[in-house]
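User:
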Amino acid sequence: MLNSKWISTWGGVGFSPIAPGTMASLVSLLLWIPLMKWGSFGLWAAVWFLLFALGFWAIGTYQQKTKKHDASEIVIDEVLGQGLALWACPDHWAFILLAVGLFRLFDILKPWPISWIDRSLKTPSGVLLDDLMAGIFSALVIAFIS
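Assistant: Predicted structure:
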């Protein structure tokens, strides 16, 4: 049986007492880097969309159970956003570090329209969408400089 708490918190990483979003981004590299190196784009996309569907369900369920909108322990959105940031990334450690740094920067600073999404959409879609936009912004910067 699926567990919304386990999925939403990326196996408990979201309960890290220090920077749970950053910890989730770093731990997600254990998934995304092997897919970048040895998987096809189709496999990467299948994994990403599966996680998106599970994450959407898990966030909604977890929100209902806890009565919290965007609790800091919900980090599946960071995992998905980090995956998008790495999508355009060349297979080189410097670009991977840049992808993590840019994603965290955009996720924390929330430039427009990320800030609007974060303020306006109080649904599982909103929880996911601000991080997905941060990932897209990061991917665009990396694609531009690489």
